[in-house]
Design goal:
- The structure holds two protein chains of two kinds.
- By secondary structure, chain A is mostly beta strands.
- Chain A folds into two domains: 92 residues, Aspartate carbamoyltransferase regulatory subunit, N-terminal domain (Alpha-Beta Plaits), CATH 3.30.70; 50 residues, Aspartate carbamoyltransferase regulatory subunit, C-terminal domain (SH3 type barrels).
- Chain A contains three helices and eleven strands.
- In chain A, the strands form three sheets. In chain A, strands 2-3-1-4-5 form a five-stranded antiparallel sheet, with helices on both faces.
- Chain A is elongated and about 50 Å long.
- Chain B is of the alpha/beta class.
- Chain B folds into two domains: 128 residues, 3-Layer(aba) Sandwich (Rossmann fold); 156 residues, 3-Layer(aba) Sandwich (Rossmann fold).
- Chain B is built from nine helices and nine strands.
- In chain B, the strands form two sheets. Chain B has a five-stranded parallel sheet with strand order 7-6-5-8-9, with helices on one face. In chain B, strands 2-1-3-4 form a four-stranded parallel sheet, sandwiched between helices.
- In chain B, helix 2 links the parallel strand 1 and strand 2.
- Chain B is globular.
- Chain B starts with 15 loop residues before the first helix and ends in a 5-residue tail after the last helix.
- Classes of the chains: A mainly beta, B alpha/beta.
- Chains A and B meet through loops of A and helix 4 of B.
- The structure holds zinc ion.
- Zinc ion binds next to loops of chain A.
């Protein structure tokens, strides 16, 4: 996280909770959906198109009084592997969590193969992460690979 | 063996010993193809996509072993044409049958069926994805004619881009130190991901765009596939290459004595009629081998092999 500029002010304003930083601007609402933030009743601040030295433009989401499990965090890896979660307690960043690609992705991503059974049956998709570095997923059903950048959420 | 009970969805989960063990049982069925081992068993053949050849082979296998067959040969005659889910069809049929053999036009259909079904599933083809019994009968034909699977020179000819049988052969042969020759028109070359697979698994291969007497002179197995017009984006290219990947009898003059020609059938024109009488031709016997291999796969799925 940058030490200067507005983003620091946004973090400083939170007493307890999570600040999700370094979200690509076009993925902010994907993060909202994946974490189910529309169903949370604590204060949430969403910032998008903020200037970032590293990324050019980025998004930040602040969620008061809410922390996320490893499982919830790992969901985010399929859309934005460089996201950082700042854990805030008593106005201090007590932990910076980088997210790890899981071994398997269930029910988040849509298979890109129109002839795949998962696109025709009411069923959960399952992908094995075959290349964590490059973010390549392989559909457990049709065996087709999805590369980073081609990933579409359900 | 496969993770999902005794289902056979792909050959991925089989190791060298599994493959040789199943082929050994196929040989026993060839020695005595008729028995009562399936007496009292009901096997469902669910062909959501028609494939007369494969269905007849499986159903003959069940009948020769004393089992009974229920099922359908075309999705148009079933409730799935009325919008029933695959899961519901499988659950319904599994009330009646001890084993389900299914072919489906959607990729991954058999894997999904095996996850929801209380009875084992044999995949008889799921779209462009897997067709394990075809690969097993190809392997059986190679073993039977060559006396071994190890160290063979296998020449794959024709459509190597879309041909699912050639792709699963690469996977299944990784335990047997093969040397592959990929012979195809440029547009239908072996995809990079499969060549990468070969490199990662130490499988030797060479690529050729010419199909002639010389290219096949050191082959033990010549595996022919169809070059289909609809696979080409450039029809000029199709017109140019369509006659270049046809096997003619005079191309076999320098062939090794043990060479056998395989083809998954049906053939269109990629093997000239005059090759049929050549002792190297093996594709009709190959299809017959499918019966013994399927007898073994069915009995294995029902846990009847020792
Ligand atoms: Zn798929």
């Amino acid at each position: 996280m940058e030490k200067t500029g507005k983003s620091e002010l946004l973090v400083a304003a939170l007493e307890n909770g999570t600040v999700i930083d370094h979200i690509p601007s076009d993925k902010v609402f994907d993060v909202v959906n994946l974490l189910g933030l529309t169903n949370i009743d604590t204060p949430i601040t969403i910032g998008s198109n903020l200037s970032s030295r590293k990324m050019g433009s980025k998004g930040i989401i602040k969620i008061a009084d809410r922390y996320f499990s490893e499982e919830e965090c790992s969901k985010l890896s399929v859309i934005a592997p460089n996201i950082v979660l700042n854990i805030i307690r008593d106005y201090e960043v007590v932990e910076k969590k980088r997210i790890a690609m899981p071994d398997q992705v269930r029910g988040i991503v849509k298979c890109g193969n129109p002839k795949c059974i998962t696109n025709h049956e009411p069923m959960q998709t399952v992908f094995d992460v075959v290349d964590k570095e490059n973010g390549t997923l392989r559909c457990r059903y049709c065996n087709k690979d999805i590369h980073k950048g081609e990933i579409k959420l359900l | 063996m496969d993770q999902t009970g005794r289902s056979l969805i792909s050959l991925e989960g089989l190791d060298r010993e599994d493959i040789l063990w199943l082929l050994g049982h196929a040989a026993k069925f060839e020695a005595s193809p008729n028995s009562k081992i399936l007496d009292g068993k009901i096997v469902a053949t669910l062909f959501f996509e028609p494939s007369t050849r494969t269905r007849l082979s499986f159903e003959t296998a069940v009948n020769r072993l004393g089992g009974r067959v229920i099922g359908f040969s075309d999705a148009a005659t079933t409730s799935s044409s009325k919008g029933e889910t695959l899961k519901d069809t499988i659950m319904m049929v599994s009330n009646y049958a001890d084993l389900i053999i299914m072919r489906h036009y959607l990729e991954g259909a058999a894997r999904y069926a095996s996850e929801v079904s209380p009875v084992p599933i044999i995949n008889a083809g799921d779209g462009a994805n897997q067709h394990p019994s075809q690969t097993m009968l190809d392997l059986y034909s190679m073993l039977k004619t060559q006396g071994r699977l190890d160290d063979l020179h296998i020449h794959l000819v024709g459509d190597l881009k879309y041909g699912r049988t050639v792709h699963s052969m690469l996977t299944a042969m990784r335990f047997f130190n093969p040397t592959f020759h990929f012979i195809s028109p440029d547009e239908l070359k072996m995809p990079e991901e499969y060549k990468e697979y070969c490199r990662n698994n130490g499988i030797k291969f060479e690529e050729h765009t010419r199909f002639d007497e010389e290219t096949i002179a050191d082959a033990d197995i010549l595996y022919m596939t169809r070059v289909q017009r609809e696979r080409f984006t450039d029809l000029m290219e199709y017109e140019r290459v369509k006659d270049m990947f046809i096997l003619k009898n005079d191309m076999l003059r320098s062939a090794k004595e043990n060479l056998k020609i395989l083809h998954p059938l049906p053939r269109v024109n990629e093997i000239a009629q005059d090759v049929d009488a050549n002792p190297h031709a093996y594709y009709f016997q190959q299809a017959k081998n499918g019966l013994y291999v399927r007898e073994a796969l069915i009995c294995n799925a029902l846990n009847l092999l020792k």
